[in-house]
Amino acid sequence: MSFSDLGLLADLQRAVAAQGYTRPTPIQAQGIPVVLEGRDVLAGAQTGTGKTAAFTLPMLQLLSQRKRPEGRNAKAPRALVLTPTRELAAQVGESVTTYGAHLPLKSAVIFGGVNINPQKDMLRRGVDILVATPGRLLDHAGQRTVDLSAVEILVLDEADRMLDMGFIHDIRKVLALLPKQRQNLLFSATYSNEIKRLADGLLRNPALIEVARRNTAAETVTQHVYRVKKEQKRDLLIHLIDEGQWFQVLVFTRTKHGANHLAEHLNRAGIEAAAIHGNKSQSARTKALAGFKSGELRVLVATDIAARGLDIDRLPHVVNFELPNVPEDYVHRIGRTGRAGEAGDAISLVCADEQKMLADIQRVLKKEIPTVPVPMFEPKVLAPAPKPAQSPRKPAQHAPRDARNGKPRHGKPQNNRNGAAPSGARSDHRRRRPAGKPKAASGNAR
Ligand code: AMP
Prior knowledge:
The protein contains 16 helices and 13 strands. The chain has helices at residues 10-18, 26-36, 51-65, 86-99, 117-125, 134-142, 159-164, 168-176, 193-202, 217-220, 233-244, 256-268, 282-294, 304-307, 327-334, 355-365; strands spanning 41-44, 79-82, 107-110, 129-132, 153-156, 183-188, 207-210, 222-227, 249-252, 273-276, 299-302, 317-320, 345-350. Strands 3-4-2-5-6-1-7 form a 7-stranded parallel beta sheet, with helices on both faces. Strands 8-13-12-9-11-10 form a 6-stranded parallel beta sheet, sandwiched between helices. The longest helix is centred in the first third of the chain and has 15 residues, at 51-65.
C-alpha cells in the first residue's frame, strides 16, 4: 500500500514524500479513502498513529477540489478542526501547512492565552482551514470575528480529551453555529459513554475505524521505581545508562529548563543527548529526533508536551527522571516503550516530594509499581564543558529501530551489584561504542 493507492493528489503525495513517509499508517490507509468519499468517520486512534495526516490530507484534497463560496462568506473557514489544547492545535496547524505546501489553501490556528487581535486579522483576511481550541473559538464567535456558516468539514481531534477537560458545552455551542449539512470526523483514543453520546448526535452513518490500541502499555511494560534523593538522580541515571549499556533512552522531565540542564549534564558525562521541548524550533526538534533515530544521540530528554505527537515509541527504555503532575501523562510516557506482546522498561526516579504523584499514578494504574533497590553507584567525573568548535561526529552503527523490525529483544535481565532486580538492561540492547567514537562530551545537544 502506498500513498498513491489512496487516491491522493500528486501535490499531496509530494508533500508527504518530503516528510520521508513511504507508507501510509493503518489509520491513514483506512481513513483517507473514506474521508475522500465525503463520509463521516468515527476513528479510535491515539497520538502516534498518524491520525493527523489521516484527516488533514483528505481534508486538504476535498477543499482544493471544491469551489470557495462566493459573496458574504467568501472568506469564512470551510474546514474546522477542534483540539483540546494549544499544543495540539499548533501541531495540527503545522501539519496543515506542511501537507498543504503545494496547494493554494490558507489556514490559521487560534487558541487562548495569546493576544486575540492578530487572530482577528488572520480571520478577516480569510482562511480555508481553521484549527482552534473551543474556548477561544467561542470568544471569536461572540465578537463576530469568525463566521462558521461555511464550514463543510468538522474534525473533533482527541475528542475524549476535550470531554475530560470539560469542553462538552463549548463543543455543543460550536456545533450550533455550523451548517447542518457537513462532513464530521471524530477522533478519540477511548470510547466512553459520553463519546458515544456525542458521536450518536453528530455523525451520520459513520465509517468506523479502529487502529491498534496502544494504551495497554501499563500491563505489558516492566515498570520500576527507584527511590532516590533529588540531587542523586543525575548520577543514578548516568550509572543506569552506562552500566546497562542503554542506547535510545527517552527521558522525561517536567520542565523545559530541566530538560536542557539534564541534556547538558549527560553530554558532559559522555552520553550523547539532546533536549526537545516547546521552546525549541521545529527544525531543532526534527534534527534531535533524526539524531535519536539514527543512533547518533543516545538519549532524548523531553517534556510531555514536546513528546506528544512525536513518532518516538516502541523504545527499549523510558525513564521518568521526574514524575508527571498528571497521572495520565505517566501512561502516555510509558506507552512509548515496549511493543505488542513484548515488554519494554519504564523506570521512574522518585524523590521524597514526588510520593503523592506516585500514589496518584498507582491509583490510575490500579496497581503498585514495584520499588527496587538502588544500585551502588559512584558519581561520574564529568568531562570539561565542550569547546565551541567540534568536528562532526559520525553516526553510530547500530540499528536503533530493531524493535520495529520484529527482532525479539530477549536476553536475561542483569542483576546489579546488590543482586537486586533488573535495571532494565537486556543483552541485545548492548552495543559497543563504535571504534574511534570518543566518549568525551559533545556539543550536539543544542
Ligand atoms: P499523529 O498520530 O498524527 O500525532 O502522528 C504521529 C507521528 O507520525 C508524527 O510525527 C508524524 O509526522 C508521523 N507520521 C504520520 N504519518 C506517517 C507515515 N505515513 N509514515 C511515517 N510517519 C508518519
